[in-house]
Amino acid sequence: MLVESELLDAGTRVVTLLMSGAALALAGISAPWRVWLEDRERQWVWLVSLGVLVGIWSMKAGFTPGLSLRFLLVTTLTLMHGWQLAAIGGALALVVLNVAGVATWGSFGADLLCAVIVPAVVTVQVHQLVHARLPHNYFIYFFLTVFVGSALAYNLAGLARVGLLAASGSLDAGHVGPEYFAVLPLMSFGEAFVNGMVMAMMVVYRPKWVMSFDDRLYLKRGDGG
Questions:
Q1: Residues 164-183 pLDDT 10s
Q2: Torsion angle, CA of 190/193/199/205, rounded to 10 degrees?
Q3: What is the pTM for the complete model shown?
Q4: Least enclosed by CB within 10 Å: which of 20, 57, 92, 150?
Q5: Environment class of 15 (CB within 10 Å of its CB; exposed 0-12, middle 13-18, buried 19+)
């Protein structure tokens, strides 16, 4: 869900770059670096995750000029590593895509905002809400935090893209209309399915790789077990 740089005016580029830079700085300051640096396995998992992210983001579904959609998988990255490392990892993935010519430097701030920051923040908010208000149950975590959370994050990321195009006065040039809004929910369902499938495997086989999942809490037995 990258934004074409030619569709953004100079003001929007500057504002999104400043907003994304501020979020990235906050992520760098608040990231759990000590825990992360002491866990070599978690470092490798994070790096492999970024490699997968670059591969997924290199592919796109294009329908009309200016209208391209990609699976993001930022929900998985956020639930596994926290929003800070997800934001930093997403920024690094975008750098690779820009160097490879898949993305453009002119829209780096907008891409980081729409494809990484927005879905990461939405994922964190959904997880915190579900964790605070509902029973700590594997199925609740899976269906609400992962499935519903990733679909919601994807749709809001898409709406953020529309908002940037509207602010730049290039909605028509971006061909964002009924076609886009018809495809976005369908893509969000696919996004939820892919995130759900990956997270289900992680939780079952490598729960320690998932920072947001505590198997002692979500898979605890009843008092009579």
A1: 988 888 777 556 667 778 88
A2: -130
A3: 0.91
A4: 92
A5: middle
